[in-house]
From TrEMBL:
Record carries keyword Magnesium: no
Superkingdom per UniProt: Bacteria
Keyword check for Iron-sulfur: no
Organism: Microvirga flocculans
Protein name per its UniProtKB record: Putative NBD/HSP70 family sugar kinase/putative transcriptional regulator
Family recorded in the similarity comment: Belongs to the ROK (NagC/XylR) family.
Region (Disordered): 1-25
Keyword terms of this UniProt record: Kinase, Transferase
A molecular function GO annotation: kinase activity
Composition bias, Polar residues: 8-17
SUPFAM superfamilies per record: Actin-like ATPase domain (SSF53067), Winged helix' DNA-binding domain (SSF46785)
Amino acid sequence: MPRKSKAGAQSTIGSNPERNRSHNRRVVLDVVRQLGPVGRMEISRHAHLSTQAVSNIVEELVEDGLLIKAGRLRAGRGLPPIQFAVNPNGGMTAGIEIAADHVSTLLVDIGGRVRAQRTLPIQRNDPGAVLPVIRAEIELAQAQLKPPVPQLLGVGVVMPGPFNVEGMTSVGPTTLSGWLDFDAVAGIGRILDAPITLENDATAAAVGERLHGAAKDLKNFCLIFFGQGLGLGIMIDGRPYRGANGNAGEIGHVLVEKGGRRCSCGQHGCLEAYASIHALTERLAAAGIHGVDYPGLEQLHRDRHPVVEAWIKEAAAYLAPQIAMLENLFDPEAIVIGGALPPGLLENLTQAMQPLPLSVARRRNRSEARLIHGRTGRLTAALGAAALPLLDAMTPRLDTAQAAQREQPNEEITFAG
Ligand SMILES: [Zn+2]
Protein backbone atom coordinates (compact mmCIF):
# COMPACT_ATOMS: atom_id res chain seq x y z
CA MET A 1 0.00 0.00 0.00
CA PRO A 2 1.46 3.38 -0.94
CA ARG A 3 2.41 5.46 2.05
CA LYS A 4 0.86 8.83 2.42
CA SER A 5 3.66 11.21 1.54
CA LYS A 6 2.44 14.20 3.45
CA ALA A 7 -0.43 15.22 5.66
CA GLY A 8 -3.43 16.36 3.67
CA ALA A 9 -2.64 14.34 0.57
CA GLN A 10 -5.82 12.33 0.93
CA SER A 11 -5.93 11.08 -2.63
CA THR A 12 -2.87 8.89 -2.15
CA ILE A 13 -4.19 6.89 0.78
CA GLY A 14 -4.58 3.24 -0.01
CA SER A 15 -4.92 1.61 -3.36
CA ASN A 16 -8.49 0.56 -2.77
CA PRO A 17 -10.82 2.88 -4.72
CA GLU A 18 -13.76 2.00 -2.48
CA ARG A 19 -11.77 3.04 0.56
CA ASN A 20 -10.77 6.29 -1.13
CA ARG A 21 -14.34 7.05 -2.02
CA SER A 22 -15.55 6.36 1.49
CA HIS A 23 -12.72 8.40 2.92
CA ASN A 24 -13.47 11.34 0.62
CA ARG A 25 -17.12 11.25 1.67
CA ARG A 26 -16.08 11.68 5.27
CA VAL A 27 -13.67 14.47 4.41
CA VAL A 28 -16.44 16.37 2.60
CA LEU A 29 -18.84 15.74 5.45
CA ASP A 30 -16.32 17.03 7.95
CA VAL A 31 -15.61 20.20 5.94
CA VAL A 32 -19.34 20.98 5.73
CA ARG A 33 -19.77 20.19 9.42
CA GLN A 34 -17.00 22.63 10.34
CA LEU A 35 -17.73 25.44 7.86
CA GLY A 36 -21.37 24.93 6.86
CA PRO A 37 -23.49 26.21 5.18
CA VAL A 38 -20.97 26.15 2.40
CA GLY A 39 -20.85 25.87 -1.41
CA ARG A 40 -19.13 23.27 -3.59
CA MET A 41 -16.20 25.51 -4.54
CA GLU A 42 -15.27 26.18 -0.96
CA ILE A 43 -15.67 22.51 -0.01
CA SER A 44 -13.35 21.59 -2.84
CA ARG A 45 -10.76 24.10 -1.64
CA HIS A 46 -10.78 22.81 1.94
CA ALA A 47 -11.07 19.11 1.10
CA HIS A 48 -8.28 19.26 -1.53
CA LEU A 49 -10.58 17.49 -3.99
CA SER A 50 -11.61 18.48 -7.51
CA THR A 51 -14.92 20.34 -7.85
CA GLN A 52 -16.21 17.47 -9.97
CA ALA A 53 -15.38 14.93 -7.25
CA VAL A 54 -16.97 17.20 -4.64
CA SER A 55 -20.12 17.61 -6.77
CA ASN A 56 -20.52 13.84 -7.03
CA ILE A 57 -19.91 13.25 -3.34
CA VAL A 58 -22.22 16.09 -2.27
CA GLU A 59 -24.99 14.69 -4.47
CA GLU A 60 -24.57 11.27 -2.85
CA LEU A 61 -24.51 12.70 0.64
CA VAL A 62 -27.72 14.64 -0.04
CA GLU A 63 -29.35 11.46 -1.36
CA ASP A 64 -28.23 9.59 1.76
CA GLY A 65 -29.74 12.27 3.97
CA LEU A 66 -26.44 13.36 5.53
CA LEU A 67 -26.38 16.79 3.85
CA ILE A 68 -29.22 19.18 3.11
CA LYS A 69 -29.47 22.06 0.68
CA ALA A 70 -29.46 25.31 2.63
CA GLY A 71 -30.48 27.78 -0.08
CA ARG A 72 -28.33 29.95 -2.29
CA LEU A 73 -25.76 32.52 -1.27
CA ARG A 74 -26.42 35.94 -2.80
CA ALA A 75 -23.07 37.09 -4.19
CA GLY A 76 -22.10 38.80 -7.42
CA ARG A 77 -23.80 38.22 -10.73
CA GLY A 78 -25.08 34.99 -12.17
CA LEU A 79 -26.77 32.13 -10.41
CA PRO A 80 -25.51 32.13 -6.80
CA PRO A 81 -24.03 28.81 -5.61
CA ILE A 82 -26.15 26.36 -3.62
CA GLN A 83 -25.11 26.11 0.01
CA PHE A 84 -24.96 22.80 1.84
CA ALA A 85 -25.24 22.04 5.54
CA VAL A 86 -25.19 18.86 7.57
CA ASN A 87 -28.52 17.29 8.33
CA PRO A 88 -28.49 16.81 12.11
CA ASN A 89 -30.99 13.98 11.73
CA GLY A 90 -28.94 12.34 9.02
CA GLY A 91 -26.52 10.47 11.18
CA MET A 92 -24.95 10.14 14.59
CA THR A 93 -21.92 8.68 16.25
CA ALA A 94 -21.67 6.85 19.54
CA GLY A 95 -19.01 7.60 22.10
CA ILE A 96 -18.19 4.88 24.62
CA GLU A 97 -15.90 5.30 27.57
CA ILE A 98 -14.78 2.08 29.17
CA ALA A 99 -13.45 3.04 32.58
CA ALA A 100 -12.35 0.79 35.41
CA ASP A 101 -15.68 1.13 37.23
CA HIS A 102 -18.20 2.37 34.66
CA VAL A 103 -19.20 2.48 31.02
CA SER A 104 -20.48 5.81 29.67
CA THR A 105 -22.37 5.98 26.39
CA LEU A 106 -23.28 9.05 24.35
CA LEU A 107 -25.10 9.45 21.08
CA VAL A 108 -24.08 12.65 19.29
CA ASP A 109 -25.63 13.75 16.01
CA ILE A 110 -23.44 15.03 13.18
CA GLY A 111 -24.44 18.57 14.13
CA GLY A 112 -22.60 18.02 17.43
CA ARG A 113 -25.65 17.79 19.68
CA VAL A 114 -25.78 15.16 22.42
CA ARG A 115 -28.97 13.19 21.80
CA ALA A 116 -28.73 10.55 24.52
CA GLN A 117 -26.43 9.75 27.40
CA ARG A 118 -26.10 6.87 29.81
CA THR A 119 -23.64 5.78 32.48
CA LEU A 120 -23.63 2.31 33.98
CA PRO A 121 -21.45 1.27 36.93
CA ILE A 122 -19.68 -2.04 36.31
CA GLN A 123 -18.16 -4.55 38.71
CA ARG A 124 -15.96 -6.36 36.16
CA ASN A 125 -14.11 -4.59 33.35
CA ASP A 126 -12.73 -7.49 31.31
CA PRO A 127 -13.79 -7.85 27.64
CA GLY A 128 -16.17 -10.73 28.38
CA ALA A 129 -18.15 -8.56 30.78
CA VAL A 130 -17.85 -5.23 28.97
CA LEU A 131 -18.70 -6.19 25.37
CA PRO A 132 -22.34 -7.18 26.02
CA VAL A 133 -22.71 -4.04 28.17
CA ILE A 134 -21.55 -1.80 25.31
CA ARG A 135 -24.04 -3.31 22.92
CA ALA A 136 -26.92 -3.14 25.37
CA GLU A 137 -26.10 0.45 26.35
CA ILE A 138 -26.07 1.65 22.73
CA GLU A 139 -29.41 -0.06 22.14
CA LEU A 140 -30.90 1.47 25.27
CA ALA A 141 -29.58 4.91 24.28
CA GLN A 142 -31.09 4.53 20.80
CA ALA A 143 -34.38 3.49 22.37
CA GLN A 144 -34.42 6.86 24.18
CA LEU A 145 -34.64 8.71 20.85
CA LYS A 146 -37.82 9.64 19.06
CA PRO A 147 -38.01 7.93 15.66
CA PRO A 148 -36.70 8.20 13.05
CA VAL A 149 -33.43 7.31 14.78
CA PRO A 150 -30.45 8.72 12.78
CA GLN A 151 -28.16 6.08 11.32
CA LEU A 152 -25.07 5.13 13.31
CA LEU A 153 -22.03 6.27 11.34
CA GLY A 154 -19.37 4.98 13.64
CA VAL A 155 -18.47 4.24 17.22
CA GLY A 156 -15.57 5.81 19.10
CA VAL A 157 -14.36 3.77 22.04
CA VAL A 158 -11.97 5.08 24.64
CA MET A 159 -10.22 3.32 27.43
CA PRO A 160 -7.31 4.25 29.66
CA GLY A 161 -3.87 3.49 28.24
CA PRO A 162 -1.19 2.41 27.99
CA PHE A 163 -1.79 -0.39 25.50
CA ASN A 164 0.33 -3.55 25.47
CA VAL A 165 3.38 -2.50 27.43
CA GLU A 166 5.60 -5.36 28.48
CA GLY A 167 6.45 -5.27 32.16
CA MET A 168 4.03 -2.47 33.01
CA THR A 169 1.32 -3.89 35.20
CA SER A 170 -1.82 -3.50 33.17
CA VAL A 171 -4.08 -4.78 35.89
CA GLY A 172 -4.55 -2.02 38.36
CA PRO A 173 -7.18 0.28 39.77
CA THR A 174 -6.58 2.82 37.01
CA THR A 175 -6.50 0.41 34.10
CA LEU A 176 -8.62 -2.45 32.82
CA SER A 177 -8.09 -6.17 33.19
CA GLY A 178 -7.98 -8.78 30.44
CA TRP A 179 -7.54 -6.39 27.49
CA LEU A 180 -3.82 -6.97 27.06
CA ASP A 181 -3.99 -9.54 24.26
CA PHE A 182 -7.53 -8.80 23.19
CA ASP A 183 -8.07 -7.21 19.78
CA ALA A 184 -10.51 -4.57 20.95
CA VAL A 185 -11.23 -3.03 17.53
CA ALA A 186 -12.14 -6.40 15.99
CA GLY A 187 -13.96 -7.67 19.08
CA ILE A 188 -16.13 -4.60 19.54
CA GLY A 189 -16.61 -4.29 15.79
CA ARG A 190 -18.04 -7.80 15.65
CA ILE A 191 -20.73 -7.18 18.24
CA LEU A 192 -21.68 -3.73 16.96
CA ASP A 193 -21.38 -4.20 13.22
CA ALA A 194 -20.17 -0.60 12.86
CA PRO A 195 -16.78 0.97 12.19
CA ILE A 196 -14.86 1.28 15.45
CA THR A 197 -12.24 3.86 16.35
CA LEU A 198 -10.26 3.02 19.45
CA GLU A 199 -8.31 5.63 21.34
CA ASN A 200 -6.89 6.24 24.76
CA ASP A 201 -9.07 8.49 26.89
CA ALA A 202 -6.73 11.50 27.01
CA THR A 203 -6.26 11.68 23.23
CA ALA A 204 -10.01 11.33 22.68
CA ALA A 205 -10.66 14.11 25.17
CA ALA A 206 -8.20 16.32 23.27
CA VAL A 207 -10.13 15.59 20.06
CA GLY A 208 -13.35 16.54 21.86
CA GLU A 209 -11.83 19.81 23.11
CA ARG A 210 -10.64 20.60 19.61
CA LEU A 211 -14.01 19.91 17.95
CA HIS A 212 -16.45 21.23 20.54
CA GLY A 213 -14.59 22.57 23.56
CA ALA A 214 -11.96 24.93 24.94
CA ALA A 215 -9.45 24.24 22.17
CA LYS A 216 -11.68 25.11 19.21
CA ASP A 217 -9.27 27.79 18.05
CA LEU A 218 -6.09 25.95 18.99
CA LYS A 219 -4.11 23.83 16.57
CA ASN A 220 -1.24 23.06 18.90
CA PHE A 221 -2.07 22.19 22.47
CA CYS A 222 -1.62 19.57 25.14
CA LEU A 223 -4.46 18.31 27.30
CA ILE A 224 -3.74 17.11 30.81
CA PHE A 225 -6.54 14.65 31.38
CA PHE A 226 -7.79 13.50 34.76
CA GLY A 227 -9.37 10.08 34.39
CA GLN A 228 -8.81 7.74 37.28
CA GLY A 229 -5.16 8.08 36.35
CA LEU A 230 -3.47 10.95 34.56
CA GLY A 231 -3.16 11.12 30.78
CA LEU A 232 -1.97 13.57 28.16
CA GLY A 233 -3.53 14.31 24.80
CA ILE A 234 -1.17 15.93 22.30
CA MET A 235 -2.56 17.91 19.36
CA ILE A 236 -0.04 18.96 16.72
CA ASP A 237 -1.20 21.08 13.78
CA GLY A 238 -4.79 20.09 14.51
CA ARG A 239 -4.08 16.37 14.54
CA PRO A 240 -3.77 14.12 17.55
CA TYR A 241 -0.26 12.77 18.00
CA ARG A 242 -0.48 9.09 18.94
CA GLY A 243 3.07 7.83 18.70
CA ALA A 244 4.10 4.56 17.09
CA ASN A 245 1.81 2.37 19.23
CA GLY A 246 -0.91 4.75 20.35
CA ASN A 247 0.84 5.23 23.67
CA ALA A 248 2.11 8.81 23.34
CA GLY A 249 1.19 10.96 26.30
CA GLU A 250 1.48 8.53 29.20
CA ILE A 251 2.52 11.38 31.43
CA GLY A 252 1.05 9.63 34.46
CA HIS A 253 3.97 7.21 34.50
CA VAL A 254 6.71 9.80 34.29
CA LEU A 255 8.97 9.50 37.34
CA VAL A 256 8.72 12.59 39.53
CA GLU A 257 9.99 11.26 42.86
CA LYS A 258 12.83 8.77 43.07
CA GLY A 259 11.78 5.93 45.37
CA GLY A 260 8.49 7.66 45.92
CA ARG A 261 4.95 6.41 46.36
CA ARG A 262 4.03 3.14 44.67
CA CYS A 263 2.10 3.46 41.41
CA SER A 264 -0.40 0.99 39.97
CA CYS A 265 2.04 0.33 37.08
CA GLY A 266 4.52 -1.22 39.49
CA GLN A 267 7.03 1.64 39.59
CA HIS A 268 7.62 3.98 42.48
CA GLY A 269 7.27 7.76 42.28
CA CYS A 270 5.15 8.18 39.11
CA LEU A 271 3.34 11.49 38.63
CA GLU A 272 0.03 9.60 38.73
CA ALA A 273 0.80 8.36 42.23
CA TYR A 274 0.42 12.00 43.32
CA ALA A 275 -1.57 13.97 40.76
CA SER A 276 -4.62 11.81 39.99
CA ILE A 277 -8.11 11.18 41.24
CA HIS A 278 -6.95 7.71 42.23
CA ALA A 279 -4.21 9.21 44.39
CA LEU A 280 -6.77 11.51 46.02
CA THR A 281 -9.24 8.70 46.74
CA GLU A 282 -6.39 6.62 48.21
CA ARG A 283 -5.49 9.47 50.55
CA LEU A 284 -9.15 9.76 51.52
CA ALA A 285 -9.36 5.99 52.09
CA ALA A 286 -6.31 6.19 54.35
CA ALA A 287 -8.21 8.80 56.34
CA GLY A 288 -11.18 6.44 56.64
CA ILE A 289 -13.30 7.88 53.81
CA HIS A 290 -14.00 5.04 51.40
CA GLY A 291 -15.63 4.73 47.99
CA VAL A 292 -15.87 8.43 47.15
CA ASP A 293 -17.59 9.11 43.82
CA TYR A 294 -17.81 12.30 41.75
CA PRO A 295 -20.59 14.02 43.77
CA GLY A 296 -18.84 12.90 46.96
CA LEU A 297 -15.62 14.55 45.78
CA GLU A 298 -17.50 17.76 44.97
CA GLN A 299 -18.98 17.78 48.46
CA LEU A 300 -15.67 17.13 50.22
CA HIS A 301 -14.11 19.95 48.20
CA ARG A 302 -16.94 22.35 49.09
CA ASP A 303 -16.44 21.41 52.74
CA ARG A 304 -12.73 22.21 52.33
CA HIS A 305 -11.83 18.81 53.71
CA PRO A 306 -8.18 18.86 54.90
CA VAL A 307 -7.28 15.70 52.92
CA VAL A 308 -8.56 17.32 49.71
CA GLU A 309 -6.74 20.57 50.49
CA ALA A 310 -3.50 18.71 51.18
CA TRP A 311 -3.88 16.74 47.94
CA ILE A 312 -4.37 19.94 45.92
CA LYS A 313 -1.12 21.33 47.32
CA GLU A 314 0.85 18.16 46.69
CA ALA A 315 -0.59 17.47 43.22
CA ALA A 316 0.03 21.08 42.13
CA ALA A 317 3.66 20.89 43.31
CA TYR A 318 4.32 17.81 41.15
CA LEU A 319 2.21 18.93 38.20
CA ALA A 320 3.46 22.52 37.72
CA PRO A 321 7.01 21.56 36.60
CA GLN A 322 5.46 19.10 34.13
CA ILE A 323 3.41 21.92 32.60
CA ALA A 324 6.62 23.84 31.99
CA MET A 325 8.25 20.70 30.62
CA LEU A 326 5.41 20.19 28.12
CA GLU A 327 5.70 23.82 27.04
CA ASN A 328 9.42 23.40 26.50
CA LEU A 329 8.92 20.18 24.54
CA PHE A 330 5.94 21.09 22.37
CA ASP A 331 5.73 24.90 22.36
CA PRO A 332 1.91 24.68 22.42
CA GLU A 333 -0.48 27.64 22.13
CA ALA A 334 -1.78 26.62 25.54
CA ILE A 335 -2.06 23.69 27.90
CA VAL A 336 -5.63 22.60 28.54
CA ILE A 337 -6.46 20.81 31.76
CA GLY A 338 -9.69 18.91 32.29
CA GLY A 339 -11.37 15.56 32.72
CA ALA A 340 -13.22 13.89 35.54
CA LEU A 341 -12.14 16.34 38.23
CA PRO A 342 -15.00 18.50 39.57
CA PRO A 343 -14.69 22.10 38.24
CA GLY A 344 -14.15 23.72 41.64
CA LEU A 345 -11.38 21.30 42.48
CA LEU A 346 -9.73 21.89 39.09
CA GLU A 347 -9.92 25.65 39.65
CA ASN A 348 -8.14 25.37 43.00
CA LEU A 349 -5.57 22.99 41.58
CA THR A 350 -4.64 25.37 38.76
CA GLN A 351 -4.51 28.28 41.21
CA ALA A 352 -2.15 26.29 43.41
CA MET A 353 0.16 25.80 40.41
CA GLN A 354 0.67 29.55 40.03
CA PRO A 355 3.09 31.05 39.34
CA LEU A 356 4.06 28.42 36.78
CA PRO A 357 7.79 27.73 36.44
CA LEU A 358 9.64 29.55 33.68
CA SER A 359 9.38 28.00 30.24
CA VAL A 360 9.43 28.98 26.56
CA ALA A 361 5.73 29.79 27.01
CA ARG A 362 6.61 33.01 28.84
CA ARG A 363 6.55 35.59 26.07
CA ARG A 364 6.36 39.34 26.32
CA ASN A 365 3.52 39.61 23.80
CA ARG A 366 1.53 36.69 25.21
CA SER A 367 -2.16 37.57 25.59
CA GLU A 368 -3.72 34.19 26.35
CA ALA A 369 -3.25 32.14 29.52
CA ARG A 370 -0.69 29.35 29.57
CA LEU A 371 -3.08 27.02 31.33
CA ILE A 372 -6.77 26.94 30.42
CA HIS A 373 -9.65 24.85 31.66
CA GLY A 374 -11.18 22.28 29.39
CA ARG A 375 -14.40 20.41 29.76
CA THR A 376 -14.84 18.70 33.03
CA GLY A 377 -17.26 16.10 34.20
CA ARG A 378 -17.68 12.42 33.92
CA LEU A 379 -18.65 12.47 30.24
CA THR A 380 -15.60 14.31 28.87
CA ALA A 381 -13.90 11.17 27.54
CA ALA A 382 -17.14 9.81 26.04
CA LEU A 383 -17.71 13.15 24.27
CA GLY A 384 -14.25 12.91 22.82
CA ALA A 385 -14.94 9.32 21.82
CA ALA A 386 -18.06 10.36 19.90
CA ALA A 387 -15.99 12.93 18.01
CA LEU A 388 -13.40 10.34 16.94
CA PRO A 389 -15.24 8.83 13.95
CA LEU A 390 -15.70 12.34 12.55
CA LEU A 391 -12.18 13.61 13.16
CA ASP A 392 -10.88 10.39 11.72
CA ALA A 393 -11.90 11.60 8.30
CA MET A 394 -9.27 14.27 8.52
CA THR A 395 -6.55 12.20 10.16
CA PRO A 396 -6.60 8.70 8.75
CA ARG A 397 -4.21 6.22 10.26
CA LEU A 398 -2.07 4.20 7.95
CA ASP A 399 -2.58 0.92 9.75
CA THR A 400 -4.15 -1.24 7.06
CA ALA A 401 -6.21 -3.49 9.30
CA GLN A 402 -7.67 -0.62 11.28
CA ALA A 403 -8.26 1.37 8.13
CA ALA A 404 -10.14 -1.53 6.59
CA GLN A 405 -12.25 -1.78 9.76
CA ARG A 406 -13.15 1.87 9.65
CA GLU A 407 -13.48 2.49 5.99
CA GLN A 408 -16.59 0.50 5.32
CA PRO A 409 -18.90 2.69 3.27
CA ASN A 410 -21.47 4.42 5.41
CA GLU A 411 -24.52 3.10 3.62
CA GLU A 412 -23.63 -0.45 4.58
CA ILE A 413 -23.58 0.32 8.25
CA THR A 414 -26.49 -1.15 10.04
CA PHE A 415 -26.87 -1.56 13.72
CA ALA A 416 -27.36 -5.18 14.58
CA GLY A 417 -30.26 -4.80 16.98
ZN1 LIG B 1 3.19 4.45 37.10
